[in-house]
Design a protein that fits this description.
- The protein is an alpha/beta fold and 374 residues long.
- It has twelve helices and 16 strands.
- It has an eight-stranded mixed sheet with strand order 1-8-7-5-4-2-3-15, sandwiched between helices. The protein has a four-stranded antiparallel sheet with strand order 11-13-16-14.
- The model has no long low-confidence stretch (mean pLDDT 97).
Length: 374
């Protein structure tokens, strides 16, 4: 089976993990956590990084530090993995689901901008926080959100769980990495991400005080390392073992992103003549293509049938997520926009995208799709 996305573990992973075992620092105490944090911050151009037990944990802490709480409203992308909205719901905040725009599949930030301005003129409540998800490795259009922050003081939390290595190449954020433009950015190191720590996440910010508060909350809000606590915290620390794995992976981040972009170029070239819409690439963005995904045309095989057919050929394909408004916990949630997110789900499919995907295996995927769709 040609896998969808599995980690490449041919660097210092074994050596660093063995160091943890030999030193007995296998839990949340040990030198690799701080090394991972500092190296990660430097890699993406952030001032501070706080390692967490998962990307979802990082998001929950980031939203809490941004003011999410009962009575507050968080605008979230409708087309995203459910953890993005769950992190807001954990805080007790209300959620506003915002539809996608068709060019990049990300939140339609211009639509949200115009709606917030309308609500402000009408004296209606506006979101306190925007959680912007950079979907499938492509940066979202950030300028409308920066204007909202300047005008109304709305906080921006970037969910960059799928987009490590992506950046803006023009516009207000030109030359910056996803996760570093908002007030707080969050990343995931799940096993299928561009780099992995087996499971884990990272919170980044330019604000030293926010970083200190995040570190405090993820360590059960302990005071002076003892058994006194000043608020309700979380056991969201990353282990030294996981950090060791993550650090070894991080050392090869440049190679991993370069491999993802090469895979995308080959898919672009091989699929461009088929009845599909290839993965987006806006002129102002440099995506990292976490999972290369496409949309089939309405009059062709749908993604369910394609996934089944590819499976028979020992190729792992996967449907994109249902939009959150179709998920049971969020069916009655307030929505903004139309049905772009539903169309993405109805026609979307992710293809094998491991960084070590060989030309031979990728050629087999392209030939299989060509046979199925022509």
């Amino acid at each position: 089976m040609i896998p969808l996305a599995e980690p490449t573990l041919d660097g210092n992973e074994a050596r660093y993990v063995q160091e943890c075992i030999e030193s007995s620092y296998v839990s949340s105490v040990g030198p690799f956590v701080e090394r991972f944090e500092k190296t990660f911050a430097a890699a993406i151009g952030a001032s501070h990084a706080v390692a967490c037990a998962s990307g979802t944990a990082a998001l929950q802490v980031a939203l809490r530090l941004s003011g999410a709480a009962p009575g507050k409203l968080v605008a979230v992308s409708d087309f995203t993995f459910i953890a993005s909205a769950n992190a807001a719901t954990y805080t007790g905040a209300d959620v506003l689901l915002v539809d996608s725009e068709p060019a990049t599949w990300n939140m339609d930030t211009e639509l949200l901008h115009d709606e917030i301005c309308r609500r402000a003129r009408a004296g209606e409540p506006i979101p306190d926080i925007v959680e912007i998800v950079h979907v499938l490795g492509h940066p979202a259009r950030i300028e409308p959100l920066l204007e909202l922050r300047d005008r109304f003081g709305i906080r921006i939390v970037e969910d960059a769980a799928e987009s490590l290595g992506a950046e803006w190449c023009s516009g207000a954020a030109a030359g910056t990495s996803v996760g570093t433009v908002g007030d707080i950015g969050c990343f995931s190191f799940n096993g299928n991400k561009i780099i992995t720590s087996g499971g884990g996440g990272m919170l980044v910010t330019e604000d030293a005080d926010l970083a200190a508060q995040a570190k405090h909350l993820t360590n059960q809000a302990k005071l002076d390392g003892g058994y006194n606590h000043d608020t309700v915290g979380y056991n969201y620390r990353l282990t030294n073992l996981a950090a060791a794995l993550g650090l070894a992976q991080l050392e090869r981040l440049h190679d991993a992103v370069r491999a993802k972009r090469a895979i995308a170029r080959r898919y672009h070239a091989g699929l461009c003549c088929l009845p599909v819409t290839v993965a987006p690439r806006a002129s102002w963005a440099n995506p990292s293509y976490w999972l290369y995904s496409l949309l089939t045309y309405e009059n062709t095989l749908g993604p369910d049938r394609l996934v089944s057919a590819l499976t028979e050929l020992d190729i792992h394909g996967r449907r994109l997520w249902p939009p959150l408004h179709q998920q049971t916990p969020y069916r009655s949630t307030e929505r903004l926009g139309g049905d772009v997110s539903s169309k993405l789900y109805r026609r979307g499919l992710s293809l094998p995208s491991s960084t070590h995907l060989t030309d031979t295996d990728q050629g087999a995927v392209i030939r299989a799709l060509t046979s199925l769709l022509r």
